[in-house]
Amino acid sequence: MSGTVYETLRLRAGVSAGRGRSGVHLVGYPDVRPIGGDDLAVVRALASGEHRADAFPPPARRLLSGLREDGWLVATVYDGDTPVYTLDPQVCPDGDGPAAPADVRLSRFTTIAAAPGGGLRATSPRAWASVTVHAPGALAVLADPGARVPPPGVGARAASMLRRDLLRAGLAVTGDEDAEFRVRQWSAVDLAFHRSSRGIDGEVGVAGGFGATYWGREHVTDAGHRPPSGPVTELPRPDLARVIAADPKLTEVLQARRSLRDHDAARPVTLGQLAEFLHRCAATADHPTPHGDRPRRAYPGGGGVHELELYVVAHQVAGLEPGTYHYDGYGHRLELVGRQAGAERTLLEAARSMSDASAMPQVLVLVTARFERLMWVYEGLAYALILKNLGVLVQTMYLVATAMGLGGCALGAGAPRAFQRISGADPLSEDVVGEFMLGTVAGEHHTEGNA
To answer: Which of 33, 84, 169, 390 could pair with 129 in a Cys bridge, judged by C-beta atoms 3.0 to 4.6 Å apart?
Structure first.
């Protein structure tokens, strides 16, 4: 490839121009840039679509160069008639990028995936722009931006511009990227999840939006409550007046809360205690709202949809056969999902190992998310919202267990594939997002490392 190298330019998404009391400004949250009144025609042209940079008159070239370097423009570099790559800013850069030395390489935070319009797109939570490569030969530059051997199928000038833009955007780095612990402490997955779920990086949603866009309205099928499919155990309902009269005060419960990992094997939790715990944590009733009936529980849930479900793996419960049960918060009953001793032992043993308990828990509560209930509404932050809802539920379970004199302990991980073997759930539709151990309090509390 050895044609004329040139760029086409257009304003990046979300940028607008307007005239105010202090003159003409470009506005692209969170950035504002003043421009001269004589430049407004150029900006309007850039807002209308792609234009070759060299087609603008020479007086406009300085403006175009500044806008490109400051991240206001989407630039596509051509080598002859072939598009080589596109630099697509999400925000304006903080400052000038470094020059391209010989030891340039991709950042460990950079990920490469298929771009919606074709080609391969490189993104990073540490970058202010993405780069999409279109020409096959440009992949060699993307894979090894520090190589000095001319890549096949890409001219030297276009390859040099691609190296420069990868480095300037933050997709490529030089030197020891992890020299500082503040960088080394982050995994690529954690940092990408954090930034995207906070709306920092622009269009991160499935359909190009962010927040409660209701993008999947036409596709949602999991509208809410499902009828039971297995044998049902009706649970006794707690006398809430008695509970309110007997409960310790909230501050006492907050101060007494501990992660209690070991249970009293000689005194298993009873079905009545389990029923009260489940009712106080997740009993569900329809609640009228301006948008129709929504489920209501003791804890808040983003969007009021309550996508979280509780499953009980009963190991030692007086009055209840061992097995795995789904808690129906509407009917206050347990629905038998299955009895698979091997898979249930895997779940219970994983809980024991994760908590460093001396024995398997009397009860393991699995919290799942039925993703479709929430994900059709939210873009970009749906999974982060599920985890926030989980945190509220876990605190509720801690406080209820403490008020009841039971031992509870939340877990950081488990054995979700064992749950899938028991339930047959499709993990893209419903999967475990949290675990909580429950049982009677042992004589000596194992509380090391409590949060």
So the answer is: 169
